[in-house]
Amino acid sequence: MKIGILGAGQLGRMLALSGYSLNHQFGFSGNATNEPAALLGHMFAKKNNSDNIDSLVEFADVITFESENTEVGIVKEINKKIPVYPNEKSLFITQHRGREKALFNQLNIPCAPYQMVSSEADLQAAVETIGLPAILKTATEGYDGKGQFFIHETSQITKAWESINGVESILEGFVNFKRELSLIAVRGIDNSHKYYPLVENTHHQGILRLTIAPAQNIDKKVQEIAQHYMQTLLDEINYVGVLTIELFDTENGLVVNEMAPRVHNSGHWSIEGANTSQFENHIRAITGMPLGDTTPTHLFCAMINIIGQLGDIDAILEMPNAHLHLYDKSERKNRKLGHINMTANSQTELEDSIAKLKDFLP
Ligand code: AMP
Predict the structure, then answer these.
(1) pLDDT tens-digit map of 171-222
(2) CA 170 / ligand 1 centre spacing (Å)
(3) What is the 67 CA–ligand 1 centroid distance (Å)?
(4) Contacting residues for 213 by C-beta, under 8 A, at least 6 apart
(5) Does 238 lie in the same domain as 304?
(6) Does the predicted model carry a pTM greater than 0.85?
(7) 208 and 229 assigned to the same domain
């Protein structure tokens, strides 16, 4: 099939790389012809408002997107002509933290207590109801910890409100977690489901730096609970493709933080670490192919993001169990330039491999 992707970043690039072996072709819409996916298919670069989208839709049999910030209106228009997966509803919900939390509550999926705020007075009231510490997050367009303010005491309320430029926001109670996890799953057009194992994620300054897959010391029951939350969400929104949920592992069980309607950085390990990668499974799902097995290929896998600077790339290439994935991006502070996947058959091998690449970690 001809697959059109709204966006041409590294996610689009890795989707295409996984889809060519299934005989699919790719087109992308983006802002510039030097984006990570630009050389991997037909690039419909933006000239004026929407002409590139029209050309992409003319090219494609099915459309998908790489960002939850994709305009819902565009997806709605495209869907009048050809299918778009995930659907418009999934996008509408996941691009607004308030709508997302309301859905979690509706489906009895545990999440942090929250209140929507549209003014400083609202924020004052929300702090009284929810208590401190709490986190103020913009309702839309936040990513990698951007658009957030951690409030420890009431004297910070004005500063918090100003720091997010007084836009519609959500105040969330602080969740005291032991570690951060994520779950990636895929649902096909025929309502088939596949789940990857829970993975453990370590962030630095809001940016994911390390994923351990599968997360260690996860009770079978905990995996089942996470999968139950996931299945409830997938079915409720009639989702097709890969969906990610980020969770906090707490003393009182799992608490869902947020979800992303796309392949996710915490699933990059699956390229070498699982029988079928998240990218291939997304492509299989949206093209109506049978979903692939998600079983890990090794007992342990780790993914390290390459952020800002490329560093000693040769050191990675010399390691027998390390796999390098670069995104064809130039160096820039805090930019995701690539990632390294490491597979291992023992905890010691995994720890030794991570230690060899410690310069890539903060
Ligand atoms: P988010 O953009 O919602 O993923 O938040 C970025 C990071 O902030 C998360 O990965 C957590 O480390 C932290 N965080 C977000 N929300 C909360 C919360 N309610 N309680 C504690 N930490 C949080």
Answers:
(1) 999 999 999 999 999 999 999 999 999 999 999 999 999 999 999 999 999 9
(2) 12
(3) 19
(4) 196, 197, 199, 200, 269, 270, 273, 274, 296, 300, 301, 302, 303
(5) yes
(6) yes
(7) yes
